[in-house]
Amino acid sequence: MRIAVFSTKAYDRRSFEEANERHGHDLTFLEARLQANTAALAAGHEGVCAFVNDNVDAEVVDLLAEQGVELLALRSAGFNHVDVDRAAERGITVVRVPAYSPYAVAEHTVGLMLAVDRRIHRAYNRVREGNFSLEGLLGFDLRSKRVGIIGTGKIGQITARILRGFGCSLRAYDPYPNDEVRDYGVRYVDLDTMFAECDVITLHCPLTPDTHHIINAESIAKMKDGVMIVNTSRGALVDTVAAIEGLKSGKIGNLALDVYEEEGDLFFEDLSDKVITDDVFSRLLTFPNVLITAHQAFFTQEALSNIAETTLSNIAAYTRGDRSGNELTPKNIRPNRGNDDGEDE
Ligand code: NAD
User: Fold this and answer.
1) Fewer CB near the terminus (10 Å): N or C of the chain?
2) Which residue range forms the structural domain that includes residue 318?
3) Prediction pTM value
């Protein structure tokens, strides 16, 4: 099958070429992001492979369908950037990679927590410049702190297990509570209780209409003074303007982000020679207690090779006329949660 692989970076190409030695698909690697004005690059391909900041809205689905694309293979777990209903209407099968390494994301989450708490990002620069002062680097012990986990799916559960090792007191909110999570000491509470009680709040739910701006001015007002917020899920879970106000007032004591609601125009590119025109993002960068990574939580060797292998296996199953189990259809997307067919590692 001929597959147009959009938003390809050198590391994607390496992992896909290595995995493709076992599959033999005909892959065309394209640097362009998939959007309406690049969809024509899919001409001559039956399949398209897309990543998180590709925009596969209804217009793009129509453009792909008109060019004879039958399969959209997402190399991500999240699918909020895809109009799955429209794809179904246009006869395009959508597959994804439901789990490639939840450990990668959970470990990065805890790394961000530690780094922003102990100001490791500032300490790194200081020491390199011969500044060995500790002023401004004061952190807190994670032990005994209450951590609230929003979303206890694959990544949230692993984050809980790691934090249990730090001696944290764990709270969680998920519309689908999980008994296994309770077994390792997590207490499910409603969101208001979590906001009122927790010192740290970490987001591990999908982006849906229900969770859009789940962290907003109102929810921030209910939080403890000096709360730490960590988001490694999807940018639009956090209302960034409200978070900036929370940082300015001191309500938010630490903010660590791997995702940002307008990241599509920034992340995954080297813009170091360019002027950043996003004033909201630029304001975030001015706070000493904000740490941002550019959507790299997934970025481990294990995750890249699992992404490539599962994506190419999904394509192989489609070409054989089989189901991989990783298909996304409107009917198997439950209204209040991410599509999860029980896949796990
Ligand atoms: P998952 O589907 O296993 O778990 C998601 C959980 O969120 C489920 O338990 C679900 O019930 C819960 N949920 C649904 N609606 C909710 C709501 N309104 N409030 C609270 N919880 C809700 O997904 P996962 O593999 O754990 O991934 C979680 C998220 O992490 C993904 O949706 C994706 O956006 C993000 N992610 C980020 C990266 C990265 O590199 N930063 C990589 C992979 C995934």
Assistant:
1) C
2) 2-100+301-328
3) 0.91
Ligand 1 contact, 160 CB (< 6 A) = no
Q: What is the domain count for the chain? A: 2
Pocket test of ligand 1: the residue of 100, 155, 194 to mutate, having most ligand atoms within 8 Å of its CB, is 155
* Catalytic residue ranges: 234, 263, 295
Residue 215: CB within 6 Å of ligand 1? Answer: no
CATH number of the domain at 231, please: 3.40.50.720
Q: Where are the beta strands (DSSP E) in the chain?
A: 2-5, 26-29, 47-50, 71-74, 93-95, 146-150, 169-173, 187-188, 200-203, 227-231, 252-257, 290-292, 327-328
| CA pseudo-torsion sign 23, 93, 73, 76 | negative
Task: Mark whether 93 and 165 lie in a shared domain.
Answer: no
Residue with CA closest to ligand 1 atom 37: 233
Q: Does some domain include residue 333? A: no
Cβ 290 vs Cβ 116: under 8 Å: yes
